[in-house]
Design brief:
Layout lengths: L9 H12 L2 H9 L5 H29 L8 H43 L4 H18 L5 H23 L15 H13 L6 H4 L5 H30 L4 H7 L4 H27 L7 H18 L5 H24 L14 H17 L9 H26 L1
Helix pairs in contact: 1-6, 1-9, 1-11, 2-7, 2-9, 3-7, 3-9, 4-5, 4-10, 4-11, 4-12, 4-13, 5-11, 5-12, 6-9, 6-11, 7-13, 9-10, 11-12, 13-14, 13-15, 14-15
GO molecular function, one term: cytosine transmembrane transporter activity
Membrane topology: Multi-pass membrane protein
Organism: Syntrophobotulus glycolicus (strain DSM 8271 / FlGlyR)
Length: about 400
């Protein structure tokens, strides 16, 4: 993808990641932070997102420079077989995200349609939303620019209206919500959302025109969109005493516009999940058709959404943090500190890094038990990055002694 006529401009990256961030899941997660109150909740949201999007942008640079998808870049630090394992884990989390997004949207859409017209069928809404995502996938990332511009423009207008309705009651700035939430846990919930996109971002930045454009377009789009959605969720929960997005939308009396927000936001976000599941599958089977696989993943996610009840949302977010925080701590350290920037052919598995990753997973689940000031992700990534430096120093020393 070397031709500028085929590459993606930075503004399109802004739209892709702004659209990815404008989602029901982000509004819901922002609502979970409401027990802190508005001021502390806002601080946690901004701090978590600054950290998360910087990590996201660095992973995007790897994709741009190496012209490879995100999960394939793990071959740099873990070898071919290591990347196969992470491909499977990434496909599982992406199908899980697809199902979570569809069922969240279907429930909200059903609440709204039931209130407006008496139409009550969550399964039907799952099918409708899944079908729309498949249409988006079939259009393709390189052919969807005009469609994406139109969708994001409409979504932007609808979100501005929702924000106006939520924040016209200034008393929410001094309220708190029922429940408990520590500042560290709120930061963690804010870091995890951009972190969940680390195994995907290079799937798109590999098509960029420039490193700066890919980085800043992606980072600014996601930061602005995600912070905005979190803040809407935070304010809406303080206003309605209910963190469910449908309750906020119904309380705002937005009518059919509320349905538009739910459906459009879900399609523009979940499309990326299903598409990247197809890309990750290609890391294992090179000859597969990524679009066909993406459509299949969307269909599987839709079926899961119809036939299962996905309630352990926070546990699912913690799973993502435990798997991908130590993984990308190792990759980013080796790539940017030790300049290991290429895939080393003939190296099937780097066992030392796999062991470091396992240590990181274990540390993550230990740290979530404690109320750390900045959550669990950042301490785990810093510790694993430091251990990676120590590992490299020991290997260098060993090689000198042996020679």
């Amino acid at each position: 993808m070397n031709s500028n006529s085929q590459s993606i401009p930075s503004f399109h990256f802004f739209l892709i990641w702004f659209g990815a961030a404008v989602s029901i899941s982000e509004i819901l997660t922002g609502g979970l932070i409401a027990p802190l109150g508005f001021a502390q909740g806002l601080a946690a949201i901004v701090i978590g997102h600054v950290i998360g999007v910087l990590l996201l942008g660095l992973c995007g640079i790897i994709g741009f420079r190496n012209k490879i998808p995100a999960i394939e870049s793990t071959r740099i630090s873990f070898g071919k077989f290591g990347s196969y394992g992470f491909s499977v884990l990434n496909i599982l989390q992406l199908v899980g995200w697809t199902a979570v997004m569809i069922i969240m949207a279907a429930r909200s859409a059903n609440d709204i349609s039931n209130a407006l017209w008496g139409f009550n069928s969550t399964s039907a809404w799952c099918i409708v939303i899944g079908a729309l995502i498949c249409i988006w996938i079939a259009t393709g990332i390189k052919n969807s620019a005009k469609l994406n511009y139109a969708a994001i423009s409409l979504l932007f207008i609808l979100t501005v209206i929702l924000s106006t309705v939520v924040f016209k009651d200034t008393s929410i700035f001094s309220r708190t919500s029922d429940g408990t939430m520590s500042f560290g846990a709120a930061v963690e919930l804010s870091v995890i959302m951009p972190l969940s996109w680390l195994p995907l971002i290079a799937d798109y930045t590999r098509f960029g025109r420039s490193s700066k454009g890919s980085f800043w377009g992606s980072v600014s789009g996601y930061f602005l969109g995600s912070c905005w959605m979190y803040i809407i969720g935070l304010g809406g929960t303080l206003l309605t005493a209910n963190y469910e997005p449908s309750a906020m939308l119904l309380a705002a009396n937005m009518g059919i516009a509320a349905l538009g927000i739910v459906v459009l936001a879900t399609v523009t976000t979940t499309y990326l999940d299903a598409y990247s599941a197809g890309v990750s599958y290609l890391n294992i089977h090179r000859n597969a058709n990524e679009k066909v696989i993406a459509l299949l993943m969307c269909a599987i996610g839709t079926l899961i959404a119809i036939y299962t009840s996905i309630e352990q949302y926070i546990d699912f977010l913690y799973y993502i943090g435990s798997v991908f925080a130590p993984l990308f701590a190792i990759l980013l350290t080796e790539y940017f500190v030790f300049r290991k920037t290429g895939i080393r052919e003939g190296h099937n598995l780097f066992s030392a890094n796999v062991i470091l990753w396992l240590i990181g997973v274990g540390l993550y689940y230990q740290f979530v038990k404690y109320d750390l000031p900045f959550g669990s992700t950042i301490p785990v990534m810093l510790i694993i990055s430091l251990l990676c430096v120590v590992k490299e120093w020991l290997l260098t020393l060993f090689n000198k002694l042996r020679s």
